[in-house]
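Input.
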Amino acid sequence: MADDVIHNEEAGIERLLEIMRRLRDPETGCPWDIEQDFDSIAPYTIEEAYEVADAIQRRDWRELEGELGDLLLQSVYHTAMGEEAGLFSFQSVVRNISNKMVARHPHVFGDESRDKSAEQQTADWEAIKAKERAGKAQKGTLDGVAVGLPALLRAYKLQKRAARVGFDWPTTDEVIAKITEEAAELVEARETLSQAEVEEEFGDLMFVMANLGRHLGVDPEAALRAANAKFTRRFEGIEARLAASGKTPADSDLAEMDALWNVVKQDERTSAKQD
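Output.
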């Protein structure tokens, strides 16, 4: 019966669950899959989530379909290990998230009015989450902000949490002033302090930059991803133009590559205006 499910392309999620059970079978499964645990699989889970985001940013919908499958496999992997340890199962995970979504949307699934602004819905959502944290004995304002998040994203979330209770600069001007202060401290640290102290000052500057993003309504993680993509695109443009003349970056120098960078940038702007 299990083989029938595994080889049935229309069996849906039950097929994937059965495939994972077979892979993890201590006697007949895959040796690599059998050896894995939560800690060893977690990095793959993070990587797959980023690959989903990358496919979306590139608007590659066919690849997104595949990446979403890879990410779903991570959930199935973790729930299989949870079931083996008697901790939880795929069905309990589905039940919990379904219950959470119903509870957090009383204006859709309950008797509350849907006639609310986006700001009011956000406030209601945060109030419901606060109650959930209280039920989990998470009393501190910053409790529940995952330590494993990318550092820039975690900084953004920590500051957002603190701002809810009034620990925040009232305007963007104060944030910019703090950035100036931290940048000056970093310059001083570079000249007089140890490498560890330089790293600390650099971290302070990055933390305040994340706060500036929040004040400007900018997701710093998304902004940096976009900046990375832009840099990659433009540097590849430099390489292409060098290749057209039979050269590589190693055969060039900074002055030439900087000039080509400006050409690529101008071409992008011209193309954007034409679009």
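The chain has a mean pLDDT of 90.
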